[in-house]
Amino acid sequence: IPVLVTFRQLQFIAAPVLLMGFFIAVVIRQKAHASAMRQRHAEKQAHDIISHISAGTFEVSLHRQDNGSILPRFHFMSPQYLKMFEISYEELEANPTSVYERIHPDDRASLQKANTDAMTHLSSFRWEGRLSWGGQTRWMQASSRPRVNSDGVTVWAGVITDITSQKQAQEALQRTLENLPVPISCDDMCD
After folding, report:
1. Tens-place pLDDT, residues 75-99
2. Nearest-angstrom CA–CA distance, 149 and 178
3. In this predicted model, what pLDDT tens digit does every residue of 61-79 receive, in sequence order?
4. Strand locations in 1-135, DSSP E?
5. Where does residue 44 rank: exposed (0-12), middle (13-18), buried (19+ CB within 10 A)?
6. Which terminal CB of the chain, N or C, has fewer other CB atoms within 10 Å?
7. Phi, psi at residue 154, to the nearest 5°?
């Protein structure tokens, strides 16, 4: 039996369904907006924290060249990282190896070995050495851990810390111990 419905009756039946769909769409949009706002707040908070800690933070991928050298590609550098190396973001983007130019010549081999080991074994990276730039020498300690980013690239995310004051304190302690009437070494104190 065919049922005949007038346009007016159809409007009366369909109006609540359309209204309910509209309310559902509004609620979904509000939830998406609230989620995006929370994400932006979390990103701003993370940026604020990173900008106010004394250590430099970075994310880098390492790429072995045909000549055996390792070319870094920086995905992130905090303002402190750039300040420690006395380098601009643009300069580092244009020449990623410019950070190596700032490594003390006597410490470049140990950095190369640490990078090679981390790449070969996809393992954590740890290095301690000197930066020598602009007539100053500063001791740095860097460490990072590998992870695969959203693009499928293995990157090392880490921190670099200026440990110059610690090294100076160790050297002062060593000089003091050497000048004592009874010989004592730092090794004796650590056992």
Report:
1. 999 999 999 999 999 999 999 889 8
2. 50
3. 988 888 877 788 999 999 9
4. 56-64, 70-77, 125-133
5. exposed
6. N
7. -75, 125
Q: What 3-state class would DSSP assign to 66?
A: coil
Query: What amino acid is encoded at 7 in this protein?
Result: F
The three-class DSSP label of residue 129 is strand
Q: What is the mean pLDDT of residues 163-178?
A: 90
- Token representation of residue 28: 């979904």
Tell me how many helices (H) and strands (E) the chain has: 7, 5
What are the tens digits of pLDDT across the range 3-40?
A: 676 777 767 777 778 888 888 988 999 998 888 888 88
Is the distance from CB of 104 to CB of 129 less than 8 angstroms? yes
**Closest C-alpha to 111, from 154, 75, 69, 51:** 69
Exposure string over 114-131, b if 16+ CB within 10 A, otherwise e: bbeebbeeeeebebbbbb
- The pTM of the full predicted model, rounded to 2 decimals, is 0.68
Q: Extract the tokens encoding 121.
A: 């074994």
Give Cα separations from 21 to 11, 34, 44 (angstroms).
Answer: 15, 20, 34
Distances (CA, A) of 89 to 11, 58, 61, 70: 62, 12, 16, 20
Q: Are 116 and 70 in contact, with CB atoms under 8 Å apart?
A: yes
